[in-house]
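cache lookup: miss for this entity combination. No prior model stored, computing from scratch. Input as submitted by user K.M.:
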Amino acid sequence: MGKLKEKIIESLLAVSGLLTILTTIGIIWVLFSESISFFSHVPLSDFLFDTQWTPLFVNKQYGILPLVCGTFLISIIAILVAMPIGLTIAVYLSEYAPQKFRRVIKPLLEVLAAVPTVVYGFFALTVLTPFLQKFIPDLGSFNALSAGIVMGIMIIPLVSSLSEDALYAIPKSLREASYGMGATRFQTAFKVAVPAASSGIVVSVILAIARAIGETMIVTIAAGQRPVITIDPRDAVETITAYIVQVSLGDVQHGSLEYQTIFAVGITLFIFTFILNNISFWAKKKYHQKYE
Amino acid sequence: MSKVKINRIKDTIFEYVGIGSTLIGLVVLAIFIGNILVEGLGRIDLDFLMSLPSRKPERAGILTAWTGTAWILGLTALIGIPLGVSAGVYLEEYGKKTRLTSIIEVNIANLAGVPSIIYGLLGLEIFVRVLNFGGSLLAGAFTLALLILPIIIVSTREALKAVPDSLRQASYGMGATKWQTTWYQVLPAASGGIMTGIILALSRAIGETAPVIVIGALAYVPFVAQTPMDEFTVLPIQIFNWVSRPQHAFITNAAAGIIILLFLTFVMNGIAVYLRNKWQKKINW
């Protein structure tokens, strides 16, 4: 009797674990099945190489390049903000800061990641863009720059905490050897600690990129909804995620080609993040082996 | 100047650069929040909290939005907590190092990296269409529960890992079964850590906008939801809707809504940090 109960409980727990696998299968199945009917109407080569994205217009064209371009433009701006600041924070906290300061500042930095993204979108549109317009006169009220900067601020804690973990994992003996040779903290940090932790730091940046390309609300609110191929950060652009929101807000008929476009761009986004995440797992495994 | 001196100066300069970088994000956030308080604080009163949405900004309120958020919070917790904690317990306490558990582990790590809007597409197809929930609270809660599942599972596992093995051995020694040991000894000992993870996950859920827009939550809902099958809106969607309107009075409304949303988020995060600190002190066996 008791044994049976134990077995039943164990199976119930296992089912919860298996549910996570079902979720993944569900995501892949949903994205694939809707995309397949999309690609039976639109050739894959048009989707990949056409330079116009106008599925909601009369003259419909289905080239995803403008959305990919907008997505990467904003992600690059975000990384340019988050990487230098995040890395400096990581080095400072692990090599310089007193324990007490770390204990206070780490939860505070996490607050940056806890603020809902719709709030960041509001900041970008109503505070940062008007501020930047004072210096950049031809900056539109929707632009990639402002959205990218604010997104960068949001992902600072991601870069800093993962990089700090990587720095933390380095054996103390390496640092002590460096100090013993008369090196300063600065020299030890950048000539010993950072190179030794480099793969972990790369992981943090890759994960930050993955996070940035999947971010939705900041770009929907502040970057505009203009799918164009541009590298000018002053332009309004549209990202993959912003397009999905744009369609979701409208009156699109289930089963129509417009409806299927969100799954086709969705699978593109999923593939990007999937690849980036798996590169980071692989790199993480490598550096864990190194010092164990 | 000697090389030693230059190196010392570099060392000191970096110390200040480090402090500056650490504070810059927080300072910018503080400026943003200050701005919002100035803009929106005057708009918040009982009427704002208890009014239905309206086309006139000065009459519009967030009653349907915050009740929707409360519904979503409750339903998501109801669905997500048992599933997440059970999966965490299975992987940490029961799962031997089999192929299956290692696949589940890799899979959870991957799920944690899937953008939230993709969960919206999953919810749209599975819960809204196939299971026919429509754009209801239930569809929203299931979607968000799947979204926060990886967070709950990972934090449950970490909390369980911190419980010393001697506790389990003592319980087995008294003749307790595996489940009795888990339920009466291990879970209570890990409860602080598990609670921290749950609260952080739920705070994430109520701040999410993109997936609930995709499953079809509406910006304009003229009534308070009565059952889980009702259509709904939530605070982030109401804010988003107001932000996208041209009139300045709606921006003021958005700022006021943001103050309420941030208040909820910060309170939940504060509780989580407090619990974590308290529990970490206790678990130093």
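stored under new cache key. The CA atoms of residues 108 and 165 of chain A lie 17 Å apart.
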